[in-house]
Specification:
The chain has about 450 residues and is an alpha+beta fold. The chain folds into 2 domains: about 230 residues, Dbl Homology Domain, Chain A; about 100 residues, Pleckstrin-homology domain (PH domain)/Phosphotyrosine-binding domain (PTB) (PH-domain like). It has 10 helices and 9 strands. Helix 1 runs antiparallel to helix 8. The chain is flat.
Length: about 450
């Protein structure tokens, strides 16, 4: 160990040992915080930032680390502020976009409502006055009898009045929407207009309750040749006079209000989704959407009944010589093409018929050659009838394909498409479903007959 003569001055202290081997360590007083090692089993812990290469002076080293830390903190603050600004801008953009989307939905509602109201106005401008005038002035004997024996006139007055009232509430709803749309902005509300509109929908309850009477009255009128001729002539004259006027058949206006309320459920959900959660409209629109959903669920069966009733009216007008009339309780359940099987030739598939299944009646029709029109061929009353599946043995015979006596060409190896059959039989007290309508039979004690209507596949 060496030292000079002056006090207080120290010199570097080095080990006089041999140079260190690969696993030896070197200590230097000039780097009190630095531990250098050659060992592969240890790590550097005195220089956590790995910046000791900048200076050997510990004071400078600490100052550099402190300065860099300050710079890092400032950068972090700027990044947080930048992210906050970006987040704010995104929120502003989303809010602005939702305001535009909400405005677009309102515009679509206005367009749809305008079309609906105009169609109701077209009905009011065309049918009520003309039909009332004709009923008052007609000298057709058959029409006069119907007017005396039925309540057609009273029912028609109710129909004209209720469609006029429905058009009035929708016109008021349309006016309020249009006025609000003109001043639309981010703070505008729309739920209050739907709230007032919802309160006026009780009128649809009356419409659904009287709908069966409207259908029956219209069916009676359409069966009067004089009325059908008058209506066709008058409508054509109005169309020629006002080419822009779109006039539909009267039955169309009985169907028009049936599904209208379902439309508002969808648009209310869209308006809610495009409303900011902090906007009062968000909660109120959700409440109105739920009310309309419950209302549609309550009216669901009535709507189906109205559509099935109108289908009876439509089928009676499209089927030639159809004896089926629209009654208050009759509904069309299903129509389909079926094959009548001859018991003497169970594999025959040529007798294709179109069956109409009503709630109390089954009729079948056949297409005329060279025409798509259906002609009535027969009917079967379902009162007291029993419907059951065909017996398996009969189905096997129906699916059996007769092989020709002589075969020309190669024998086919494809057996994967073997024919199948299924069907039903109706046990009834009618003499024959192929004869005429059941109304021509007065004797209900005839022995049961079986009529088959299987589908061949």
């Amino acid at each position: 160990m060496e030292s000079n003569g002056k006090e207080g001055r120290s010199l570097s202290i080095h080990s006089q040992a041999k140079p260190p081997s690969l696993h030896a360590s070197t200590l230097s007083t000039s780097r009190p915080c630095s531990i250098s090692t050659y060992s592969s089993n240890t790590s550097s812990v005195s220089d956590p930032y790995s910046m000791s290469f900048l200076t050997d002076n510990q004071t400078y080293y600490n100052q550099i680390v402190e300065d860099i830390s300050v710079i890092d903190n400032v950068c972090d603050l700027f990044e947080e502020e930048h992210e906050y600004v970006l987040s704010g801008k995104v929120q502003v953009l989303d809010s602005a976009r939702h305001v535009v989307y909400k405005q677009q939905v309102i515009s679509q509602i206005i367009q749809s409502e305008t079309i609906y109201v105009n169609e109701l106005y077209d009905f009011q401008d065309t049918y009520p006055f003309e039909i009332r005038s004709w009923l008052d002035s007609t000298d057709d004997k058959e029409t006069e009898v119907k007017l005396k024996t039925t309540s057609i006139r009273k029912t028609l007055d109710s129909l004209f009045q209720i469609l006029n009232d429905i058009s009035a509430i929708h016109a008021n709803f349309l006016r309020q929407l249009s006025e609000r749309f003109q001043i639309w902005g981010p703070t505008q509300l729309i739920s209050d207009i739907f709230s007032d509109f919802y309160k006026s929908l009780d009128l649809y309850e009356t419409f659904f309750a009287q709908h069966p009477e409207f259908v029956v009255a219209l069916d009676i009128l359409y069966r009067l040749p004089a009325f059908s001729k008058f209506l066709e002539t008058k409508v054509n004259a109005i169309k020629q006079r006002q080419s822009s006027l779109k006039i539909a058949d009267m039955s169309y206006y009985l169907e028009l209000p049936v599904n209208r309320t379902s439309y508002y459920c969808k648009v209310l959900h869209q308006l809610k989704n495009y409303s900011d959660t902090s906007n009062p409209d968000y909660a109120f629109l959700g409440q109105k959407a739920e009310k309309f959903r419950l209302l549609n669920a309550e009216w669901s069966e009535r709507k189906k009944s109205c559509q099935a009733h109108l289908a009876v009216l439509e089928s009676s007008r499209t089927i030639i010589n159809c004896p089926v009339t629209a009654t208050l309780n009759r509904r069309l359940i299903r129509q389909s093409d079926l094959i009548k099987v001859d018991l003497d030739d169970l594999s025959g598939t040529s007798d294709v018929r179109t069956y109409f299944l009503y709630s109390d009646l089954l009729i079948f029709c056949k297409k005329q050659k060279g025409s798509k029109k259906l002609t009535y061929k027969g009917s079967l009353s379902l009162s007291g009838a029993e419907v059951r599946h065909l017996q398996p043995a009969l189905l096997l015979k129906m699916a059996h394909v007769k092989k020709p006596l002589f075969r020309i060409g190669k024998k086919s190896d494809d057996c994967s498409s073997s024919p199948e059959a299924f069907g039903f039989e109706v046990i009834t007290t009618e003499a024959s479903i192929d004869a005429v309508a059941p109304m021509y039979f007065s004797n209900g004690s005839l022995p049961p007959q079986m009529a088959s209507g299987p589908v061949r596949r």
